[in-house]
UniProtKB/TrEMBL annotation:
<dbReference type="InterPro" id="IPR004007">
    <property type="entry name" value="DhaL_dom"/>
</dbReference>
<protein>
    <submittedName>
        <fullName>Dihydroxyacetone kinase subunit DhaK</fullName>
        <ecNumber>2.7.1.121</ecNumber>
    </submittedName>
</protein>
<feature type="domain" description="DhaL">
    <location>
        <begin position="354"/>
        <end position="542"/>
    </location>
</feature>
<dbReference type="Pfam" id="PF02734">
    <property type="entry name" value="Dak2"/>
</dbReference>
<dbReference type="InterPro" id="IPR050861">
    <property type="entry name" value="Dihydroxyacetone_Kinase"/>
</dbReference>
<dbReference type="GO" id="GO:0005524">
    <property type="term" value="F:ATP binding"/>
</dbReference>
<keyword id="KW-0547">Nucleotide-binding</keyword>
<feature type="domain" description="DhaK">
    <location>
        <begin position="7"/>
        <end position="325"/>
    </location>
</feature>
<dbReference type="GO" id="GO:0004371">
    <property type="term" value="F:glycerone kinase activity"/>
</dbReference>
<dbReference type="InterPro" id="IPR036117">
    <property type="entry name" value="DhaL_dom_sf"/>
</dbReference>
<keyword id="KW-0808">Transferase</keyword>
<dbReference type="InterPro" id="IPR004006">
    <property type="entry name" value="DhaK_dom"/>
</dbReference>
<dbReference type="GO" id="GO:0019563">
    <property type="term" value="P:glycerol catabolic process"/>
</dbReference>
<dbReference type="GO" id="GO:0047324">
    <property type="term" value="F:phosphoenolpyruvate-glycerone phosphotransferase activity"/>
</dbReference>
<dbReference type="GO" id="GO:0005829">
    <property type="term" value="C:cytosol"/>
</dbReference>
<keyword id="KW-0067">ATP-binding</keyword>
<keyword id="KW-0418">Kinase</keyword>
Amino acid sequence: MKHFFNRRDSIVTEALDGLLRTTPPGRLARLDTYPDIKVVLRADWDKSRVAVISGGGAGHEPSHAGFVGRGLLTAAVSGEIFASPSVEAVLTAIRAVTGAPGCLLIVKNYTGDRLNFGLAAERARTEGYKVEMAIVADDIALPDIPQPRGVAGTLFVHKIAGHLAETGADLATVATAARAAAADIASLGVSLSSCSIPGQPFEGRLGAEEGELGLGIHGEPGVERIPLLPASDIVALMHERLGARLDPAAAYALLINNLGSVPPLEMSLIAEALLASDLGRGVKLVIGPAPLMTALNMNGFSLSYLKLDPAREAALTAAAEPLAWRPAVPPGTVAIEAAPTAPRATDVAASADAATEAVIRRVCTTLVGLEEELNRLDARAGDGDTGSTVATGARFALNALPHLPLADAAATLKAIGAGLGTAMGGSSGVLLSIFFTAAGQARGEGKNLASALLAGLDRVVFYGGAVPGDRTMIDALDPALKALAAGDLAAAAAAAAAGAEATRTMARARAGRAAYVAARELEGSPDPGAVAVARVFEALAAGA
């Protein structure tokens, strides 16, 4: 596993400073105690209300510093990666933000965090500070363990306590609400990989077809290994564990947490599978899916449920300043609106025009006759199918002749354009469809045929990106149509031939599949599309 970092011993301090630099001015600050003590705090804090402090090891970003701000945490204390901050670091944070109303410490239930935050609280009390603690133990992976882990459900407690403190509630009220919320949270995680710590060798413990259920946020193994399953089956498996802890008559808030490296596409799929399943029943508010409390780059997610009451619902839906917080929203239904129908094509009756039919037949028979030659030329630069693709389009046009409105040039061009995109397929079919469609539109607007064809060429150049000199059919078509606009078909044929021949000496293609081919493979071979254009104009000039 690879990581972006400078030195292992400065990863956390540099990351915290990066957070400060990318947060709107005036919101966050840090104490001048780097590197041993890493505390991020509200820059606007005046100690007039209860302070809410949390923290723990780094590696869980955006937790915890990402949630410092109005309506959430007052300060966050960070240790090194997956290591609890020291007693002195926590005590320094308490001193920095605690005024007469006191402070609440929100602690995840890990031994290091409990001891270090606990001793800091005791020392702070001897200094005269009012300090309370709420311990979060929301992980249900090991139901019989006496001290369950604190995981992503801790964020519910941050939000509820932060909201109450912001509205001026006293310390007893804030602490009581936080502890009660912590007791009503159930969380469970699943992952398809372990995480990788920067600067340490990666040890993958899972097979290619394995995942883990019931894991924490420090890369520790899950409670059990599971086979790689469809997302809906994984959600069903999680329901077996979580369902027993949820009250079917209660309303819940659900936090969908990305543990680090699940792509957004997959997280949205997981949210759909989850909310459409039994685990979605009773969910009144959803937070996420988003990376909220990660385990570095773990390829997994966790679910946290909090039983709601009116006060908790108000706290979770209240606005909060930190950019990392995701608003709690009611889970919606999939709204479906009728797609607009395509305008009905105006039926244009088939009509006869001997001259137009003769031109189409001459062009199409020429292209059908070139199938093998063009395939052979294309084999040097592409997949050897230019001749077959062009011949397919030509056969379509020949078969469509009895149904075309040949007496109406604009309608005929549009009809050919509409059919080629489907009949030919691939980029060539789309480009020729654009050419004829745009030419038909221009002809219908009153331009003569030559000018209309130039208008079609203009759209091909715009959408396709190729210009003369790029070794494509444009090298023959551009000069030919310009000569045709001057009224000289013989000159157009000569210009097309010269343009096609010029592609023989172009050592580098700048568009189309040939752009990926080395110059030595193209040397001495003309572009097959340009050759097709030249032969068509040659046939037209000969029959004029």
